[in-house]
Fold each of these.
Amino acid sequence: AQSVSQHNHHVILSEAASLELGCNYSYGGTVNLFWYVQYPGQHLQLLLKYFSGDPLVKGIKGFEAEFIKSKFSFNLRKPSVQWSDTAEYFCAVTGLLYNQGGKLIFGQGTELSVKP
Amino acid sequence: DTGVSQNPRHKITKRGQNVTFRCDPISEHNRLYWYRQTLGQGPEFLTYFQNEAQLEKSRLLSDRFSAERPKGSFSTLEIQRTEQGDSAMYLCASSPTASGSYNEQFFGPGTRLTVL
């Protein structure tokens, strides 16, 4: 079955600390991988995406993620978090086949709280 | 850029009543998706449309749920005989693709349904 697992449900960090959020997926075939972010009171927005090529992808606001195919992982990182990074983060996967429709399979989310 | 809009933003109803939600996708986006998100979980895929054709429905979508996208523009999601377990955030997303390759999904703000 297709699934995405995020290891941390709630992470609390102080400003300037480094961040790494884990994401593992189970999906047959070639996939696209995403991280979405939901800031308090706002809707889901794309943080970064991996389609192919360089497994280290950079997104908005200094975030990056590394795709490790052998580990079925797509961990999100940021060297130094800010209070404004407080949000919920979702890892998601979709298959590339046309009949898979592009539907996203999401992980359960990680709530990040950054203390000023 | 108006983005994806959803109405209403909040809906409170009594068990057994019918409710209908509307989603207006970004203009000219071919694909439209519905997801459901419950507290502490990531969004779960419900169904999607390619233009006016409903191409896939999740097993989560019971017979009480029906979705339409007449003329390939806005979409409605109706829930008949609501149950307390239907309480959730209902999210709509759209993407521009009509081919086998993935395009980014843009999410709306969601409709929060509370069934009393």
Note: The CA atoms of residues 9 and 111 of chain B lie 4 Å apart.
Amino acid sequence: KAGVTQTPRYLIKTRGQQVTLSCSPISGHRSVSWYQQTPGQGLQFLFEYFSETQRNKGNFPGRFSGRQFSNSRSEMNVSTLELGDSALYLCASGKEAENSPLHFGNGTRLTVT
Amino acid sequence: QKEVEQDPGPLSVPEGAIVSLNCTYSNSAFQYFMWYRQYSRKGPELLMYTYSSGNKEDGRFTAQVDKSSKYISLFIRDSQPSDSATYLCAMSAWETSGSRLTFGEGTQLTVNP
């Protein structure tokens, strides 16, 4: 059974640009969450989607947005990139809407220069 | 004060040792507890998932939860060099609007041959 797939694995962008990251959950998983991982802050919750609806949102600025499609695939967008947005962005999927254990992909490493 | 506290280490042990990793938390609403292992350049891999106080065993791994003390542990028996990784504790509370994980900052473990 395929795991969570994230593309691309690596991205280099310039400050002020925007970026879109993609996530395909494990087959049958309907919940998709996004996390940001940095050395200083660790893993921080961005948002969660279930049935194409955002169910929960972390404490990030509006430049961070996401969406989920009818096939449960999800995208995350960051606009007007800042140097501090450099991080590993992780997608996780779960079977049910609430409190099922999350399974993570290998992430997209974003570098903003 | 962080909701979840985890000693970042680093922790270095000889092969075959018993490893004890710990987290404390302050939010009494947390009901679900997880341990993840993260290798360099990879996403977190789910090791253990539990939602009740007591012990849960899976092979060489034992997860222990003490809700009265707000303390969770992961024990690794007969540790192997392949166990060298960062170990993250994570927890969540039941929320009608979905779930979100709160992570410790991770403990970096090295098992020396």
Note: Chain B has no helices and eleven strands.
Amino acid sequence: DQQVKQNSPSLSVQEGRISILNCDYTNSMFDYFLWYKKYPAEGPTFLISISSIKDKNEDGRFTVFLNKSAKHLSLHIVPSQPGDSAVYFCAARDTGNQFYFGTGTSLTVIP
Amino acid sequence: NAGVMQNPRHLVRRRGQEARLRCSPMKGHSHVYWYRQLPEEGLKFMVYLQKENIIDESGMPKERFSAEFPKEGPSILRIQQVVRGDSAAYFCASSPWAPWDTQYFGPGTRLTVL
């Protein structure tokens, strides 16, 4: 059973525009959420995280939003750059301290 | 400070052989996690280890799979009598301070079973 879902397998965005990647989860006990970025033939790289006590966390061009009532997480990248083209995974940690990953969204930023 | 190291990067085995995957965590990291990514799927947790201890192996298949993290040397994920369904990318991650803190991933080992 997939507790963390990324329903869009791919997304294409023009350079300079905003990229919005979405993630839904089912377990209301998740207390910590992360986004990872993955290039081909490399391991995932930590990007940004948010605690369940917050609804927004910003780091440069990257902002993560958390809507606990909707069990929804999103990553905003603005402005998008060609180097942002990668697969993005969202992950959530439960109170048993185990991480669950989504299936990933492949982002392509078109120059 | 070198990142998480995994070797080999690619491993080809025939059905019935053994596969050994190695992971050296980042310097100063004492928590190691193994994940498997099957085609078209996300990362699935397998096992969490600290030095000389298996802390959580709830994601590990009950048979043929084992993991260790000895006092000296890398963590090893061992798959005995591999089958075609074991073909996947295996990622190792490590974290510094606390269990399940932000994890830093290695480049992965792609296992292909012929």
Note: The longest strand of chain A covers residues 86-93.
Amino acid sequence: EIVLTQSPATLSLSPGERATLSCRASQSVSSFLGWYQQKPGQAPRLLIYDAYNRATGVPARFSGSGSGTDFTLTISSLEPEDFAVYYCQQRSKWPLTFGPGTRVDIK
Amino acid sequence: EVQVVDSGGGLVQPGGSLRLSCAASGFTFSSYAMGWVRQAPGKGLECISVISASGGSSFYADSVKGRFTISRDNSKNTVHLQMISLTAEDTAVYYCAKIRGIFDYFHYWGQGALVTVSS
């Protein structure tokens, strides 16, 4: 099973600041990594697929990068609605696995 | 507009069974794989099962293999998750989601169905 590790566990930032979230895979997943946003009481929402492709309707302030085992999700300037939990997910091998999440909260 | 609606959650006793359903609309259902992801209270996400567009292939997480069965009815645009031998560790919100291929990302999600296993 491919294990995904996310860091930091919590990121405390102010609106307008830049957020940088990391996801590391226990083995190479090529570019087969996605990112989700989840707000309390809601289902997750796909933001990024295959490392850097934005999903439909996702604002341009969200960007993804990386390949192999190291990936980054960047939010260029945090909006109030961006404070949430972010998960990475790999689709390279079954079982499809998610990281434990990074919580982005308001400083 | 793509819609995925989960149903069938509830309270069940340990060792009991439950069947979750998922109704999808707004896309050509028979062309897309579907999957179930669960989230225990206060925890992260776990993909537990996916089924191919035709229904001919399905995969399960080790945690549910042999106890859960995924199925689909392409004539009714529905997916089901039959769960047996439930334990407290199966308590979670279960989400049905649309995926492009069988090993892919979850593009559209249902609202979730809460399953509570407790005596």
Note: Chain B touches chain A at residues 35, 37, 44-47, 50, 59, 61-62, 95, 97, 103-107, 109-112 (CB under 8 Å).
